């Protein structure tokens, strides 16, 4: 799958301790290293991303290493076994 990092999302907040914790909680996964193909970075953060080359404009959370998290707008190929989690807190940790 291809994704791209989104600019200007650092002010967005959720009810989890961090966006990385948000991803872990709602994906049910753990990720020992960055899911970008051919990357083994361990310094993971919860990154705001969108699917690339689709009409889906939703925002998602995905763990990325700090290097790839800094590559805004660049198309990145991720491994198929990593699940995207909605960044819309009304659908996840902010759901009442």
**Any idea how many domains?**
1
Sequence of strands across the biggest β-sheet: 4-1-2-3-5
Number of helical elements: 2
- Average pLDDT for all residues: 91
Structural class: alpha+beta
Indicate the proportion of strand residues.
Answer: 15-25%
What oligomeric state is this?
single chain
Helix content: 10-25%
Q: In angstroms, what is the radius of gyration?
A: 12 Å
Distance between the termini: 32 Å
**Low-confidence residue ranges:** none
User: How would you sum up the major sheet?
Assistant: 5 strands, antiparallel
Give the H and E element order: EHEEHEE
Q: What is the molecular shape?
A: globular
**Number of DSSP strands?**
5
Structural account:
- By secondary structure, the chain is α+β, with helices and mostly antiparallel strands.
- It has one domain.
- It contains two helices and five strands.
- The chain has helices at 19-27, 66-69, and strands spanning 2-5, 44-51, 60-65, 75-77, 85-86.
- Strands 4-1-2-3-5 form a five-stranded antiparallel β-sheet.
- The chain is globular, with a radius of gyration of 12 Å.
- It starts with a strand and ends in a 10-residue tail after the last strand.
């Amino acid at each position: 799958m291809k994704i791209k990092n989104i600019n200007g999302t650092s002010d967005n907040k959720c009810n989890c301790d961090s966006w990385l914790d948000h991803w872990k909680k709602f994906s049910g996964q753990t990720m020992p290293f960055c899911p970008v193909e051919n990357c083994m970075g361990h310094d993971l953060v919860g990154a705001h991303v969108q699917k690339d080359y689709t009409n889906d404009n939703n925002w998602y959370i995905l763990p990325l290493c700090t290097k790839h998290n800094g590559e805004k707008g660049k198309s990145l190929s991720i491994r198929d076994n990593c699940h995207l989690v909605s960044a819309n807190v009304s659908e996840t940790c902010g759901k009442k």
